[in-house]
Amino acid sequence: MHPYVAVPATTALVWRAYSRSSLTPAGIIVAALTAIVKHDVKARLTLSSSGTSGGEGARTHIQVLANSGIASLLILFHYWQLRYGSSNEECWPFGKDLLVVGIVSNYAAVAADTFSSELGILSKTRPRLLTSWLRQVPPGTNGGITLLGTLAGFLGAFMVALTSTLLLPFCIVEPSSKIGGGLSKDTAGFEGGNGWGWRERMIWLLSMTIWGGMGSLLDSALGGWFQASVVDTRTGKVVEGSGGKKVLISGSSAQDKNDPNSSRHVESGIGLLDNNAVNVLMAASMSLGVLLGYKTPFDNLY
User: Fold this and answer.
1) Which of 88, 112, 75, 89 shows the shortest CA–CA distance to 196?
2) How do strand 46-48 and strand 238-240 relate by DSSP bridges?
């Protein structure tokens, strides 16, 4: 995307987010920074599959669905549950409504993955391949990680977790909720009730941050194993497929990095999946995984 299109478009999106309070101030700053990195820095460090600079190009609807499709399905299920279910709760009880957990964990994981890949490329150190004894690889390699990218990933997960902590309709804890020794939904969850006190909310914030950050590492592992990273032999830059698709190479010699006649070679990965499939697999694993194990860490605390 040309600067005369990207700059006004990014400015308009940032202003809309600010005017409607749909992002926190920190979220707006990081979103704008990510857009700058996406257009400028990443375009210089990677190539598009057509051979020009600019990375993977504009995002497509497939990429949007790959990152948010699982959460969208969970949201539809949750809507059906609220509309046609038997529950009349006006707030979210502690330890209940697991679909909300799956939705938040999905967005925490994909945010961590986005922050890690888009901001991690700013690292001054070369990435190391998570799936190959941490050998050094070119920037943009699938499965390549840096300290900066990992920290950026956990920052992205933290921002989603913090937003959910501030905005979700938690059932509150009230001191007067104990009547005759009994417990109501307003008693703290760690005391056997269904209310969310400060301890419960802090555990929620910490858990979603850690789980989301782990999603970024899982995405790196899946990408390193199953997604082929193709490098342009002449420039040493990673070639990114348009719209998250596979990068095509032809001939057996194209996979030999030591062949002087090869214009591209596979740096890592078996090429079974493209980037979109990796994102879907990661998002599904993190959402379904947290649904299966959600109550266990909470149960062990009280």
Assistant:
1) 89
2) parallel
Per-residue pLDDT tens digits for 18-30: 566 555 666 656 6
Interior CA angle at 246 toward 244 and 251, to 5°? 160
Q: Report how far Cα 234 is from the mean position of its chain's Cα atoms.
A: 32
Token pair listed for 101: 């957990």
What is the model's pTM?
0.80
Give the 3-state secondary structure of residue 157: helix
Enumerate residues 6+ apart whose C-beta is below 8 A from 287. 70, 71, 74, 102, 103, 105, 106, 109
Residue with more model confidence, 12 or 162 = 162
Cα separation values, 42 from 7, 39, 57, 220, Å: 16, 6, 10, 18
The angle, 0 to 180 degrees and rounded to 10, between the axes of the packed helices 61-84 and 275-293 is: 30
Helix and strand totals (H; E) in the chain: 9, 6
